[in-house]
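[audit] Reproducing an earlier prediction to check determinism. Same input, same settings, fresh worker. If the tokens differ from the archived copy the diff job will pick it up downstream; this log only records the rerun itself.
[audit] input (506 residues):
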Amino acid sequence: MRTPKALPRTSPTIYTCELSVCPQCHGTLKTLDYWSGLKTVQTMSAVMTIAYRPKACSTPTHAACAQSLPSAEWQQIAPKYSTYGYDVLAQVGWDRQQHHHAFETIYADLNEHVQISEAQVRYLYYQKYLPLLACHERLRLDELTRLAQTAGLLLGLDGLMPEGGEPQLWLVRELQTGWTLRCGWLAREDETTFVEFLRPIAALNLPVKAVLSDKQRGLLPAVATVFPHAHHAFCHLHYLKNVATPIAAADEQMKITLRQQVRAEVGDLLRQKPVEKTAVLAITGLIPSPVPDPVPAVPPATAPHRDVASERETIVQDLLQRVRYLLTLKGRPPFRLAGIEMYTHLHDVVRCLDRLVRHQPEPRLLELRQGLRAALRRVRADYTELRQAAMWLTQLAEVLDPTTTPARSGEQVRTEWQAQLQQIEAESGGSVRLQEFSVTIRKVSDSYAPGLFHTYDVADLPRTNNAPSTSLRARASSATCAAAYSAPRGKAVQCAVSCIARARGN
């Protein structure tokens, strides 16, 4: 049995039908002497009771004139037969489609503002929001038809990550305008399901110039069946991710090994964190922590000289914190490989330590340098091979990136891409692991080749159906310390700025 919502009934706001002339016979409308549509509505900011006073034709000439007419303003507050305002529906749809939140998360957020259950959130999304969204999109059907006749449609197909045990949400967008043509939950991802999902678009008989998608197995024959004359382009980012799969797996294993070696060598040192003055960080709430009295500023002329030992301790702790942070790095293939990044930055820390201990051989820094050197030495061979493989990924991305060179045709890009693949095969000859990477790169590349180059010949067809920015990640240059460790006052901190600034920031 459903538990009724305990909503406070307020004095009703009465809206009157705004029309003055009958829309059927153009006769005079009269206001009726009763209320209708009395209900209590929850919005994101208030609970309100509303009703309307209808109007009816004073001289009805046929059945349509005899119907009572409601208030338009009353209808704009909440859907018919619903006690949740349109702003609640909009919040549900925004969280679901823009942020991809689970219904449990949406319910938890909404429950702070309105009385609602998770089941009601699902109902509002499926039975109210999606039909309203479909009606809104259909208003652009004439514009879509004109675009198709003049330039042809460019369709992007993409599926969002499904929640556990739930169907997967698929979208079909027109890439030149960003309009959503189809949106639905698919219980399976086979040819039959995709054909059924795409056929209503083909039934409009609008010219489709190209389709952009990932290379899902069931989607390939479905697009060929429904849109036989359209180019089927494949997402470049998905291609690079699939090419990088074995490289990313090997990089992850090297990262785990390196992390274990560092902890085995200098784990005791890293665990010696200074005790904070207080563990209470929050000072808000009904009973906040007392605000300490401000410390009076010391005039610059009488300010004491900073203790050099304190500055040295600051550098030691910041370097240790930098190493702790580097051991937590996570990768984002294909361009960010955490194992390579961890090795590179730990090597930068060692170079910084070389400079520091040359001027002041602090025992903990000597121990840290020796331990990091030993850990890096054990994975150096893996790092050398993986760095070469990562360079291949970068080179392939640069060949496909149209922003790095003048405009090229698809055939020109294909020729450069094939030359790069041949170079990868030639460079892999000296290592068994690199040869395995090269074989995978060639196999995945051959399977993606039919759909990688349409984007250079079809105007406005993007390279990816993911985020708009797919440029290579920025490679941060590592700075080295230059000043003496034993320099007086603040200069001692500046000598390790390349390591310390990032440690404090993280």
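[audit] rerun output stored. Observation attached for the diff report: The CA atoms of residues 399 and 405 lie 9 Å apart.
[audit] end
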